[in-house]
């Protein structure tokens, strides 16, 4: 199978999974943020645990990467804009009921508001790129 088709298939399956657990439902997301429904919190905690265990397995048993060197996981440093950026992301997530993964699931489900959220994400990315040109330490 072509590598791009494999990525597409994985993306479709991931979007389907997001849809099935309710991660694309505005009311469920709002319920999570106001503390009324912890379904998505459970999904996220499960994903974090599976990801953490997966990384440990990869570190222990992974074959060298293409360069021949062992797999190395490095941590990103906290920059002065990390916290404001995270707050903007969280604010947008709470208002729109979508993050970059779930907005694509919403669009795939035919939810029109997902298109507006997606347009906002594209616009925000554009603004970030323009600011980054002027201020490289962003």
Task: Describe this entry's structure for a reader.
With about 140 residues, this protein is mainly alpha-helical. Helices cover about 70% and strands about 0% of the residues. The chain is built from six helices and no strands. The longest helix is centred in the middle third of the chain and has 23 residues, at about 40-60. It starts with a helix and ends with a helix. The mean pLDDT is about 90.
Distance between the termini: 39 Å
The biggest beta sheet, please? none
Determine the mean pLDDT. 88
Helicity range: 55-70%
Overall geometry:
globular
Computed structural class: mainly alpha
H/E series, N to C?
Answer: HHHHHH
* Computed CA radius of gyration, to the nearest angstrom: 18 Å
Number of distinct helices? 6
Low-pLDDT stretches = none
SS elements, strand count: 0
Strand content: under 5%
List descriptors.
about 70% helix, mainly alpha, about 140 residues
SSE inventory with pairings:
Elements: H1 3-21, H2 26-33, H3 39-61, H4 82-96, H5 100-108, H6 113-134
Helix pairs in contact: 1-5, 5-6
């Amino acid at each position: 199978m072509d590598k791009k088709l494999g990525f597409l298939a994985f993306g479709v399956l991931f979007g389907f999974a997001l849809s099935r657990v309710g991660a694309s439902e505005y009311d469920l997301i709002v319920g999570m943020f106001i503390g009324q429904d912890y379904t998505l919190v459970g999904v996220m905690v499960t994903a974090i645990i599976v990801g953490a265990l997966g990384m440990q397995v990869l570190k222990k048993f992974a074959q060298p990467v293409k360069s021949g060197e062992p797999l190395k996981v490095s941590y990103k440093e906290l920059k002065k804009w990390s916290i404001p950026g995270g707050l903007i992301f969280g604010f947008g997530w709470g208002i729109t009921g979508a993050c970059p993964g779930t907005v694509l699931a919403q669009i795939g489900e035919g939810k029109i508001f997902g298109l507006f959220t997606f347009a906002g994400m594209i616009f925000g990315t554009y603004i970030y790129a323009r600011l980054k040109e002027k201020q490289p330490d962003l």
